[in-house]
Structure formats: structure tokens, C-alpha cells
Amino acid sequence: MSNKEGAAIRPVAQSSRRAERKEERRRLLIAAARSVFHEKGFAAATIDDIMARTGGSRGTLYGHFDGKLALFEAIVEEEAERFAQAVTETIAPAASGDLDAMAERLIAVATSEETIDLLRMVIAERQHYPGIGEIYRQIVPRIQAWMRRMFREQTGASFCRDEAASDFLADMFLAIVLADTQMGILTGITGDRLDKTHLIRTRQRLKALLALRDHLGADRLSELAALAQQDIEDGR
């Protein structure tokens, strides 16, 4: 390699390292904010609290985020990506017909300490900070879309090939996972963790849902999906 070529490569390498350091700093700020929000709540947490965990100045934080709400948005985005990854990982076991493995993956993410802490913060703070609720509402349709895509990609007999019917099942599947697990923890019905009996019951409900497809058929499920969508539109 000539000196000229080496001189051309060095700025590129330096730029890459700077980008890596910047991204690492951003991740540290998000992790610190998550910890502080969990301990103090969103309202009581301050920028100084967050910076005390990472070092550096306020200017460092504001170089990445506009403030606390932007940090919260980044945390929600991170959780959404984590859930999306879990949905992606369910494709292999689901394609082989292992519904238990599929349900357990989703339940594990839906009831993880990080997810439950985030939901508790949304519930506690959204009245005082409407932006928090809005950020979370924007994420939910993305999670729903990932779940629908996963259902459409299945080729096993337990999944609908008809797109409308498949989407209808995906929405109900997600609702069962969230309602049966997250709400139980958030309301204290199940305590902080789900016991084995509760997990078995949730999986049984999921199996019953998928068996519904074979009983009703894709055409009838498509009709039900259309009726449900019409009810949503009429209620707007």
C-alpha cells in the first residue's frame, strides 16, 4: 500500500471509530436513563441524576437527546426492537409446529422486568406527561405489524393462509399474550411473576385460538375480521 493510499484510509477509519464511540455513548445514556427512571420515576428523575451514572456533562447528553422525553422515547424504541426480535425468533419453532416454544418466547419478553417497568412508568406518568403515552401508542402498531407478518409467513396447518384471517388471528394471539400475562402482573393478580399454572393456561388459550381456524375456516375468519374492522371504524 502506498503512502497516498494509507493517508486516504486513515480518515475513514478515524470517522468509523468516532461513530462507534458516539453510538456507545448513546447506549450508555439510554441504560442510565432506564435505571434512573425505574428507581425514581420519570417525573422525579433529573438530567443530573442520569449524568451522575455516566459521567460527562449536560452538553454530552444534549448532543444525543433533546431531554428526558427523548430518552424515554429511545427506551421505548429499544423495547419495541427487543420484542420484534423475539417475534422473529418465534418463526422457526412456529413453523415446526412448536406452539409452546413460540408462546414461551413471547411471554418471556412481554413479562420481563424491563417491559413491566416500562409499562408501569407509562401508566404512572402519562397523565402528567401526555407525550409518554403518545410515544407508546406509536409503538404498538409496529409490534402488531411484526406479529401479523410472522403469522403470514407460516406454512403450517395451524396458521391461516388467507391474509385477512391470518391478521385477525395474529391480533387475537397478541392480545391473549399481553392480556393474560402483562395485566396479571400489573394488577397484582399473579404477583410479580407468572406461575407455571398461569403459563399453562395461557398456552391452552393460544392453542384454542388456533384450533378456531380449523373449525371456522379461513372464509369465516375473514368475515369476522371485516366486521371487527368495521366496528373500529364506526367507533372513531
From TrEMBL:
<dbReference type="GO" id="GO:0000976">
    <property type="term" value="F:transcription cis-regulatory region binding"/>
</dbReference>
<feature type="DNA-binding region" description="H-T-H motif">
    <location>
        <begin position="46"/>
        <end position="65"/>
    </location>
</feature>
<dbReference type="InterPro" id="IPR009057">
    <property type="entry name" value="Homeodomain-like_sf"/>
</dbReference>
<feature type="domain" description="HTH tetR-type">
    <location>
        <begin position="23"/>
        <end position="83"/>
    </location>
</feature>
<dbReference type="GO" id="GO:0003700">
    <property type="term" value="F:DNA-binding transcription factor activity"/>
</dbReference>
<feature type="region of interest" description="Disordered">
    <location>
        <begin position="1"/>
        <end position="20"/>
    </location>
</feature>
<dbReference type="InterPro" id="IPR039536">
    <property type="entry name" value="TetR_C_Proteobacteria"/>
</dbReference>
<dbReference type="Pfam" id="PF00440">
    <property type="entry name" value="TetR_N"/>
</dbReference>
<keyword id="KW-0238">DNA-binding</keyword>
<dbReference type="InterPro" id="IPR001647">
    <property type="entry name" value="HTH_TetR"/>
</dbReference>
<protein>
    <recommendedName>
        <fullName>HTH tetR-type domain-containing protein</fullName>
    </recommendedName>
</protein>
<keyword id="KW-0805">Transcription regulation</keyword>
<dbReference type="InterPro" id="IPR036271">
    <property type="entry name" value="Tet_transcr_reg_TetR-rel_C_sf"/>
</dbReference>
<dbReference type="Pfam" id="PF14246">
    <property type="entry name" value="TetR_C_7"/>
</dbReference>
<keyword id="KW-0804">Transcription</keyword>
<dbReference type="InterPro" id="IPR050109">
    <property type="entry name" value="HTH-type_TetR-like_transc_reg"/>
</dbReference>
